[in-house]
């Protein structure tokens, strides 16, 4: 029982990373109907930037704002320059841009920073705390708290802030939004910037556990896609719940189903994506759309 | 009418010239180059299968390397473990890939578009760890060697030359079959499925059956290419079938021309030779990463400047050059 509980706690801790990345994916999907295959790579860029600044002797509190601001700019620039031209184009065009971003950023990260893995200490230390017989590290707790704060902030942003409401208006009906004086282009760029920051948080929280290397976000990305599929690509709450659920599910499957550990843990998100999209294509948390001929 | 026939005639001439070059080439260049050509022909089958699936039926696959790998491993296992002669193994591997295609096509009945691309991408990511997991059958992460294909007695050709000509013949057969099928009623049904799925259904196109079948057929052709490719390079290792291979295949198809059979050949040239060229110019250690960057740039350039790919660009240039010639139905309609 204790071990089960420990696995659940570990699962929730990794699930936080998946949830943040899934949230980023869902924010971009709502904006322009594009699944950003490069969300993980953008987070990797953020993690590497944090590592570089750390190596230059910057203190963490000074480095992080720079990294997050840089992520926001990168997100907005990618949207403005590369994604804008295919807005509203065919699915193939969207997939092509997404694929190009994945290949390009992944390649550039390695060209710039090399393939050697680095380690980045988290700001929360590595003290082990125990409640009963369940152990949690301060990094796990701090990481989870960071992610939860970011999610709450994103939720409040979309619920109460002016820009957040405008972004929602654009995602629901871009044409009407234009009539209200909203510029959809700017809102979509803002969406990419926001998603890039949320993704950067995911990379930053994941880095102490995964290390900083070009493949660090590959598994989290697939988990995040599975999470977003589970919750429905258009649902932010769904993405977060899906991420946490997948974290727990994967931890339990790796522990209790023989042969499902290591790389094969990936079959869990695959199974989830496959089943959800087959049985309930619009996910658990959002409503499907009717098609008219 | 004479001017309108110019472009088809120019096209026919180009195909004929290409066929002559392809048949003469193995007698002119050395065996290593012939080996590279066999990689080219087999990769072209995989790219062509993507042209069928994505270009014609509009179902985007970002994971076609998985079928390429399934075909390769099926053939390797049948040859090495079951001791079957290679032609039988290749036929069976094609069948296995057909079934894998059908299975992967199941979600296409419920979802289309970018979520489908996602499923196929995950499939491709999953193949290498699966292969390593079942190492008793597949040789694990070190893979397994395949015996070289021997030239049948009485034919005066080296093994490489003979096998290249085999793959060339298979590729020609595949392309003729695909072009013929897509030209007729099936092609029109596929186009309807791609552009207006709901309208296609109301017009009596069996959309579910067609989606599934085209996935199966595409998987089979990619698997056939993979099986022959494994025989050409005489080994199978999981590292040859990572998801970047799938993205390379998609890049090849888009850059060549997603709705063009000639584009499949052009795309395969990129997939096979570009890493080589880049490795020669920047050295081995970073070659694969620079290749990715170049793929990305090419993809974006083609997407923005020549959405029909290099093959489409060629046709357009030819139309400009030949006065009075008109394009016939090669302009793709874009989905809104």
Quick overview of this protein structure:
The complex is a heterodimer of chains A (293) and B (336). Chain A is 72% helix and 3% strand.
Topology (elements, then pairings):
The complex is a heterodimer of chains A (293) and B (336).
Chain A: H1 2-32, H2 39-55, H3 60-83, H4 91-113, E1 128-131, E2 134-137, H5 138-160, H6 162-172, H7 174-179, H8 184-210, H9 218-231, H10 236-256, H11 267-279
Antiparallel strand pairs in A: 1-2
Helix pairs in contact in A: 1-5, 1-8, 1-9, 1-10, 2-3, 2-4, 2-8, 3-8, 5-6, 5-8, 6-8, 9-10, 9-11
Chain B: H1 6-28, H2 31-56, H3 65-80, H4 86-105, H5 113-133, H6 135-138, E1 144-145, H7 159-183, H8 185-195, H9 197-202, H10 207-233, E2 235-236, H11 243-256, H12 261-282, H13 287-305, H14 309-321
Antiparallel strand pairs in B: 1-2
Helix pairs in contact in B: 1-7, 2-7, 2-10, 2-11, 2-12, 3-4, 3-5, 3-10, 4-10, 7-10, 11-12, 11-13, 11-14, 12-13
Could you explain the architecture of this structure?
The complex is a heterodimer of chains A (293) and B (336). Chain A has 293 residues and is mainly α. Chain A has a domain at 21-217. Chain A has eleven helices and two strands; from the N terminus they run ααααββααααααα. Chain A has helices at residues 2-32, 39-55, 60-83, 91-113, 138-160, 162-172, 174-179, 184-210, 218-231, 236-256, 267-279, and strands spanning 128-131, 134-137. A two-stranded antiparallel sheet of chain A has the order 1-2. In chain A, β1 (128-131) and β2 form a beta hairpin. In chain A, α1 (2-32) packs antiparallel against α10, α2 (39-55) runs antiparallel to α3 (60-83) and α3 (60-83) packs across α8 (184-210). The longest helix of chain A has 31 residues, at 2-32. Chain B is mainly alpha-helical. Chain B has a domain at 23-241. Chain B is built from 14 helices and two strands, in the order ααααααβααααβαααα. Chain B has helices spanning 6-28, 31-56, 65-80, 86-105, 113-133, 135-138, 159-183, 185-195, 197-202, 207-233, 243-256, 261-282, 287-305, 309-321, and strands at residues 144-145, 235-236. Chain B has a two-stranded antiparallel sheet with strand order 1-2. In chain B, α3 (65-80) crosses α10. The longest helix of chain B is centred in the middle third of the chain and has 27 residues, at 207-233. Residues 327-336 of chain B have low confidence and may be disordered. At the A-B interface, α4, α9 and α11 of A face α5, α9, α11 and α13 of B.
């Amino acid at each position: 029982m204790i071990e089960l509980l420990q696995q659940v706690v570990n699962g929730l801790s990794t699930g936080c990373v998946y949830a943040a990345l899934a949230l980023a994916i869902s924010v971009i999907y709502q904006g322009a109907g594009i699944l950003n295959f490069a969300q993980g790579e953008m987070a990797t860029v953020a993690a590497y930037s944090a590592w570089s600044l750390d190596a230059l002797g910057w203190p963490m509190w000074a480095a992080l704002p720079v990294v997050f601001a840089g992520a926001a700019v990168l997100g907005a620039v990618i949207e403005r320059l590369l994604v804008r031209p295919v807005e509203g184009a065919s699915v193939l065009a969207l997939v092509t841009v997404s694929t190009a971003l994945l290949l390009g950023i992944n390649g550039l990260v390695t060209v710039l920073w090399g393939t050697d893995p680095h380690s980045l200490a988290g700001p929360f230390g590595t003290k082990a705390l125990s409640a009963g017989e369940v152990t949690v590290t301060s990094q796990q707790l701090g990481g989870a708290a960071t992610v939860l704060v970011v999610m709450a902030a994103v939720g409040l942003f979309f619920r109460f802030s002016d820009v957040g409401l405008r972004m929602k208006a654009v995602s629901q009906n871009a044409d009407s939004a234009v009539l209200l004086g909203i510029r959809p282009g700017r809102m979509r760029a803002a969406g990419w910037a926001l998603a890039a920051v949320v993704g950067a948080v995911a990379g930053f929280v994941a880095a102490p556990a995964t290390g900083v290397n070009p493949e660090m976000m590959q598994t989290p990305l697939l988990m995040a896609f599975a999470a977003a599929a589970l919750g429905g690509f258009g649902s932010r709450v769904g993405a977060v719940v899906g991420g946490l659920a997948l974290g727990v599910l994967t931890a339990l499957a790796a522990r209790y189903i023989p042969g499902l550990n290591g790389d094969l843990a990936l079959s869990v998100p695959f199974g989830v994506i496959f089943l959800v999209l087959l049985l309930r294509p619009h996910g658990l948390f959002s409503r499907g759309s009717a098609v008219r001929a | 009418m004479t001017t309108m026939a110019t472009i088809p005639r120019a096209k026919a001439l180009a195909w004929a010239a290409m066929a002559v070059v392809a048949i003469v080439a193995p007698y002119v260049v050395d065996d290593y180059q012939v080996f590279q050509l066999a990689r080219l022909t087999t990769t072209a089958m995989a790219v062509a299968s993507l042209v069928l699936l994505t270009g014609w039926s509009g179902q985007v696959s970002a994971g076609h390397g998985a079928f390429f790998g399934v075909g390769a491993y099926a053939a390797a296992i049948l040859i090495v473990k079951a001791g079957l002669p290679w032609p039988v193994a290749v036929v069976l591997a094609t069948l296995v890939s057909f079934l894998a295609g059908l299975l992967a096509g199941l979600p296409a009945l419920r979802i289309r578009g970018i979520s489908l691309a996602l499923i196929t991408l995950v499939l491709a990511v999953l193949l290498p760890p699966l292969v390593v997991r079942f190492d008793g059958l597949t040789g694990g992460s070190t893979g397994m060697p395949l015996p070289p294909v021997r030239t049948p007695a009485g034919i005066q050709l080296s093994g490489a030359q003979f096998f290249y000509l085999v793959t060339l013949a298979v590729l020609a057969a595949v392309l003729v079959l695909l072009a013929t099928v897509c030209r007729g009623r099936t092609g029109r049904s596929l186009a309807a499925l791609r552009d207006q799925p709901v309208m296609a259904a109301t017009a009596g196109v069996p959309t579910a059956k067609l989606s599934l079948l085209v996935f199966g057929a595409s998987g089979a052709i990619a698997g056939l290419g993979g099986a022959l490719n494994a025989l050409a390079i005489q080994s199978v290792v999981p590292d040859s079938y990572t998801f970047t291979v799938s993205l390379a295949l998609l890049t090849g198809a888009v850059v060549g021309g997603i709705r063009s059979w000639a584009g499949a050949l052009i795309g395969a040239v990129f997939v096979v030779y570009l890493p080589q060229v880049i490795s020669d110019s920047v050295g081995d250690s970073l070659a694969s990463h620079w290749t990715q960057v170049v793929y990305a740039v090419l993809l974006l350039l083609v997407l923005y400047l020549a959405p029909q790919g290099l093959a489409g660009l060629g046709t357009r240039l030819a139309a400009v050059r030949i006065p009075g010639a008109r394009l016939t139905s090669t302009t793709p309609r874009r989905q809104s």
